[in-house]
Amino acid sequence: MCVLITRLKCSIFTCYLCGEYFGCVVYADDILLSAHSMNAMRCMFEICEKFAVDLDVKFNSSKSVAMRIGPRYNALCKRLPLCGSELQYVCNVKYLDVFLAVLYIKTI
User: Fold this and answer.
1) In this predicted structure, what is the pLDDT of residue 108?
2) 49: number of Cβ within 10 Å
């Protein structure tokens, strides 16, 4: 998995939080990807797909989902393809026993 993290970190599609790399969080066989745009996420998926081919790894697209955050979280956009399948968009997800949910409150 270190090879995948290195490939993602070295790409231009990186995500940092407080100066720390946060584009790819890995725990055991779970991977959480974060990107600043849908295009960046698609490019990160291409890196993951190339990694899967190079190292004969299979991603389980049926257990994978996508969650968008921000003022346009519910806007229509193209599906995210991963290994021949399209990911379903969700408004909440459980990752490592932590629930993440989209909550957008517009301020004046």
Assistant:
1) 59
2) 16
